[in-house]
């Protein structure tokens, strides 16, 4: 294992933190602009514009509409020493950060993505300052990732190569508590449609094939399989179409299903069970079924070395953490950062925007109006700046500390299960989208 040399013991730590502090007011202004103009996934035109303008002015090489995704971007910096090192055949490390900036329908930035946006920007600014002022060898890349709240903008970005060449990628997320070792669940999203045959519900019901019966049977079946589902997994379902009139046997019914798990093995089990129930409901009622697998976020594995560094740096900055067991037991949701952290080493800590002293207020929960209001406060901004410093210092370790990037990769190789290829994933999705049996 690498030595635990802390970057806070050398001269670069001050430069990293000072660079973020120097941009404190402009980062606050940027956050409030995004907060005041909430946009849904893949529609974040305003956020994309103000973020890329800011980064370009700060000296990054910016690619707007990156990888043919209108509201994605890439912002990169490398020092002159880096080009010389590459020419000499030397190994050059690269670290990435993520910014999110999409909002939720009706309640705006109730997940604080305006803060995630500037946490990524601030971290990139901090690392850039250390590289630039000292002509250190290394690259920093900020990936602007849209649509986290819907189908997951990071997933096509992974497939298109946005994270290739990075040794690690880091981001943090606002919450009502400070947690590094959070148990972030995987999540899959399924749209299901049942097709039957309409008929008069009174005069000739026997002529019909009731699509709503299939949807109701599926809903009930999903409820029944919960008793054989791991207590750490989740299944939720809503019916989005149950017919047009009570006196017509419904020819069409539809629903949405989500399922979650703490690890990839359990995720596959619960997904297969869900698909089995959905198909069985069609078979039992004589309907046909169309299943569309809309999104699939993986759980977030912890890279132990980077998580420990981030925890240490932020504790030095005043964060008070609960014992790890209590952190791991805290309730959590899901994020497409899990897909990134299965692709290369990553971390996704959450930080408290309610209290800088660590007081937990569960009434200010993510995806609530209270959280929307809290996400624009001075306390939330200060907490974000503190988190950005922790991300930047950890990222700089990956770039310049001898052996650290290699140790991070070794931990990743040991702890993250090897997944099927992207091509196999695409083939599996094609089978689901075609209707079929829905199993893969």
TrEMBL record:
InterPro entries noted in UniProt: Amidohydrolase, Bact_exopeptidase_dim_dom, Peptidase_M20, Peptidase_M20/M20A_hydrolases, Peptidase_M20_dimer, Xaa-Arg_dipeptidase
| Start and end residues of each Peptidase M20 dimerisation domain | 189-283
Do you know which CDD domains this protein is assigned to?
M20_ACY1L2-like (cd05672)
Q: Provide the family line.
A: Belongs to the peptidase M20A family.
What PANTHER family is this protein classified in? PEPTIDASE M20, XAA-ARG DIPEPTIDASE
Q: Which residues form a coiled coil?
A: none
- Which molecular-function annotation in GO is an example for this chain? dipeptidase activity
Q: What is this protein called?
A: Peptidase M20 domain-containing protein 2
Q: Out of the domains of life, which is the source?
A: Eukaryota
Q: Which Gene3D superfamilies match?
A: 3.30.70.360, Zn peptidases
NCBIfam families for the chain? amidohydrolases (TIGR01891)
- One of this protein's Pfam families, by short name? Peptidase_M20
Species this protein is from: Entomortierella parvispora
């Amino acid at each position: 294992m690498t030595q635990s040399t802390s970057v806070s013991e050398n001269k670069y730590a001050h430069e990293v933190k000072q660079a973020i502090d120097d941009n404190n007011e402009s980062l606050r202004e940027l956050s409030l602009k995004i907060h005041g103009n909430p946009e849904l996934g893949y529609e974040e035109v305003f956020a994309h514009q103000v973020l890329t303008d800011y980064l370009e002015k700060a000296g990054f090489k910016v690619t707007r509409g990156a990888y043919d995704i209108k509201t994605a971007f890439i912002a990169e910096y490398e020092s002159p020493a880096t080009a010389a090192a590459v020419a000499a055949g030397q190994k050059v490390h690269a670290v990435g950060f993520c910014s999110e900036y999409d909002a939720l329908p009706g309640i705006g930035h109730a997940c604080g993505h305006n803060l995630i946006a500037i946490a990524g920007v601030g971290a990139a600014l901090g690392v850039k300052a250390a590289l630039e002022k000292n002509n250190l060898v290394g690259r920093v890349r900020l990936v602007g990732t849209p649509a986290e709240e819907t189908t997951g903008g990071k997933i096509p970005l992974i497939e298109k190569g946005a994270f290739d060449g990075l040794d690690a990628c880091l981001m943090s997320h606002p919450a009502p508590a400070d947690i590094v070792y959070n148990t972030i669940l995987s999540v899959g999203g399924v749209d299901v449609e049942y097709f039957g045959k309409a008929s008069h519900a009174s005069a000739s019901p026997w002529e019909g094939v009731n699509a709503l019966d299939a949807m109701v049977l599926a809903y009930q079946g999903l409820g029944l399989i919960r008793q054989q589902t791991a207590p750490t997994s989740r299944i939720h379902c809503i019916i989005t179409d149950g017919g047009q009139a009570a006196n017509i046997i419904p020819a069409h019914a539809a629903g949405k299903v989500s399922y979650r798990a703490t690890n990839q093995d359990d995720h596959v089990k619960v997904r297969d069970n869900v698909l089995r129930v959905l198909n069985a409901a069609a078979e039992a009622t004589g309907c046909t079924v169309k299943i569309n697998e809309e999104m699939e976020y993986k759980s977030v594995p912890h890279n132990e070395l980077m998580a420990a560094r981030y925890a240490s740096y932020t504790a030095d900055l005043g964060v008070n953490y609960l014992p790890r067991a209590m952190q791991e037991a805290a309730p959590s949701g899901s994020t497409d950062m899990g897909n990134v952290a299965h692709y290369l080493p990553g971390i996704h800590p959450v930080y408290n925007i309610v209290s800088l002293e660590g007081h937990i207020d569960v009434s200010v929960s993510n995806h609530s109006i209270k959280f929307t209001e809290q996400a624009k406060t001075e306390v939330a901004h200060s907490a974000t700046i503190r988190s950005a410093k922790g991300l930047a210092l950890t990222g700089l370790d990956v770039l310049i500390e001898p052996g650290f990037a290699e140790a991070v990769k070794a931990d990743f190789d040991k702890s993250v299960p090897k997944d099927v290829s992207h091509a196999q994933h695409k083939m599996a999705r094609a089978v689901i989208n075609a209707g079929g049996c829905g199993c893969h």
